[in-house]
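Note to self: the last two entries modelled the partners one at a time, which told us nothing about the interface. This time every component goes in together.
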Amino acid sequence: MEYGLLVMGAPYTSAAPHSALRFAKAVISRGHQVAGVFFYQEGIHNASMLMTPPQDELNMRDAWIALHQEHGVTLDVCIAAALRRGVMSDAEAKRHGQVHFNLDAPFELTGLGQLLTLEQRCDRMITFA
Amino acid sequence: MLHILNKPPHSEAATQMLSTLAKGDSILLIEDAVQALLHADWQGWNAATDVNVCVLKEDAASRGLSAAALNGHATLVDMEGFVELTAQHTKILSWY
Amino acid sequence: MSHEHERLVIIRHAPYSSNALREGLDVALVAAAFGQTVSLLFLGQGVLALLKEQVAGAPGQKATLPTIDMLEMYDIDQLLVPQSTLDALNLQVTQLVDGVTVVANDTLPELVQRHSYVMNF
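The predicted structure of the combined assembly is written out below.
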């Protein structure tokens, strides 16, 4: 079975990213696939390259990247939600005249249509917010 | 349908969830929703006929509510059980 | 009437206090633009998005009402509000924008069940 996850909570603010990550790992260990994670609303902060938690706390961005590298899970971030909250790629930063950027691969900025595509592709879509 | 609740049992989210419950649905309590273990009289425990109420074991344990879980009528599930519930229900709705 | 492959977006958050409402409506608009049939259910504080006397918020805070007015252009004409929500907030349907359908509380389970895609915002 193929799963898609919608994450709408920010790391270090909400339990949602932790629950989503634990769930994704459990899905995979049960022999299912996680096709992709879509980050929306406050969830877009999961993609920030600048998050620097203390050493005894999980770096949530690194954890998502590991999930991508080990299991091919796509990490899509809603571009409108991210830009208005100050999370953007090098290309978007240049386009908007910003000096810095804080999002790069494997996170991808994409439109809301991608959420619907993921939902249609997957057997199950689960929201963590 | 599987309803996933992550807010306390008397929150607006919980009340709204209960108003949409149908026969044959399941409820999974995660995160702050496991506080329902402290309320034996919570409406959700006996919300409707055939509604199965489960509690995520890890979230109850991390909040010190494992003992409360043993006294109640909740079905405890681990993360594997969580996945199993989502496999059993084609539609899943999160209340937060 | 069959509601296979139809989408229900549940709006549960009040305008201005967070972006949850606006970003939830965005999902409804995009789904409609993709050709899906979309209905909106305004539960609890979400109904405040439908008050017709709303005006713009604090300077720079975008108003919700123009988005509500836009729904019709996207063929989103099912704006559903449970009677219990009106009762709980002491609201009359006449205080809401045109085109709202008040639904009985005991129809909510069936309403949620019959849509293929249901999302909470």
